[in-house]
């Protein structure tokens, strides 16, 4: 790309390359701070991130390439990294490697050195290597490779600034020197793997032969045939219990605060002489639904996403994919779908976006179409409330929350089972094909940085997802208010819709009110239960009913039984994705057809499951 002059500054473009899980993004974040932007690769569907770093009269633009193991174009990430280095011609390439497994990482470095001599090696995670008694001789590596080699611990920021020094020293090299480096690399008959091994034999010392003993012990626990799935269930239970128990109090305070503010807004509207016809649609419609979404959705996400990110940083999530890989392989799907499925627990839209990590278009589409079979945070409140009211009983608040979390975990496992079943059906019908091979690295276990996890998960996940839900929820609230308050033929439009749906709803063990609530709750699943209560109470606005036993009284007085509650839980688990997820599917697939199919498939499954459940229960109770 060459030098660019602008305002007296020299601009250099630097590519950051490396294997997955080597801390490349951490290095990138330290170098660029908040001076980053995201865009699309030319002709690609994968997003890239670039950022700038100014030093003196020079401005360095760092481009964070996708993590890859080689440049062999076996995956989209490898193809993008190779094409950028070959065709875009960056001024230098910084290859980030993991000091604890340097031999494997050096393979990518050697391949890049064949393309360009302008390479800097950054050996990261020296702090982790020190704990494992692994010593890397950086000077010897530099002498063997004829390139600048620096060491750092990016999580603490130690040594990161030396990357800029190395880049500047590289730029100062004469063309003859860089030619010597390039020629030395090209003249080597040794294969990359063999040469990487020789380099490590000369420059890396393992003081402890069993430096990875602790990791292997944990792997036997987390990936064992029996213990792996048991630990997975326990983690699911723990996350759901902490989320459910921890979200109750902040949700209650947020609801009280939102309704207090609503009263003040109404008082202000009345004081200003604004008529109810003008302020009620906005305050009692759009604002009230918005407040429900924020108060019900924010606390669980603020708890769930950090917990999820902690497991991710610890290194457990790749083990989940490893455990479920055989299950997805039998369904002719990709084992990486397990990771996108886990992302869906926080938000199905995030899970759909995460499907980009799957290389095969066929397998990516299967993952997108089945992602809504795992419930997001928006569905947890309704499911937990119904489980607590109709199945848990009252054995004390602490015991109730534990038992409710256990029941919810089994419901989630049922959703995972349906994901596998529908994936197998899709792979044998409209998305035929065999499972593709992929590389899944089990990174070393690391102690997560709690502070960084909290900041990143809240800013990058919680508030991002909440913002998208808010954009959908406000117009939905206005629409619901109109349906509930506009009268025609002595009844509201909402009541006419309920009466129309009621016969079909009762056939599958629900009723018209429940079905209509799910339809109106498509923009935000959090408002399904409030709409049900509002309709039963024949009121035109969502109501703040914080007494859970009063909720059960309202439901039972309107014909609910444990079977109705079970079917509602099942349909909440197995129904169309929310509006935000649908729009995300449309964007990711570029097709209205696939979005429609993503709505139709879970809806059909949910209706069939509820019908079969109702039929079987009615038959058994009739016989008994």
Q: In short, what is this structure?
A:
The chain is an alpha/beta fold and about 625 residues long. About 65% of the residues lie in helices and about 10% in strands.
Whole-number mean pLDDT: 83
**Secondary structural class:** alpha/beta
Weakly predicted, low-confidence segments: 37-45
Instruction: Find the count of extended strands (DSSP E, 2+ residues).
Output: 12
Query: Strand count, sense and closure of the main sheet?
Result: 8 strands, mixed
State Rg. Answer: 28 Å
Distance between the termini: 80 Å
Number of helices: 25
Overall shape: elongated
> What percent of the residues sit in helical stretches (DSSP H or I)?
55-70%
**How much strand?**
5-15%
Describe the structure in your own words.
- The chain contains 25 helices and twelve strands.
- It has helices at 24-32, 76-88, 102-115, 126-131, 138-145, 162-172, 175-187, 192-203, 213-222, 227-271, 276-314, 317-330, 337-346, 348-354, 361-370, 380-392, 397-427, 450-485, 493-507, 512-520, 528-536, 548-557, 562-573, 579-589, 592-623; strands at residues 4-6, 9-18, 36-40, 47-55, 58-64, 92-98, 119-124, 134-136, 149-151, 204-206, 487-488, 491-492.
- The strands form three sheets. Strands 1, 2, 3, 4, 5, 6, 7 and 9 form an eight-stranded mixed sheet that branches. A two-stranded antiparallel sheet has the order 8-10. A two-stranded antiparallel sheet has the order 11-12.
- Helix 13 runs antiparallel to helix 14 (348-354), helix 16 crosses helix 17 and helix 20 (512-520) crosses helix 21 (528-536).
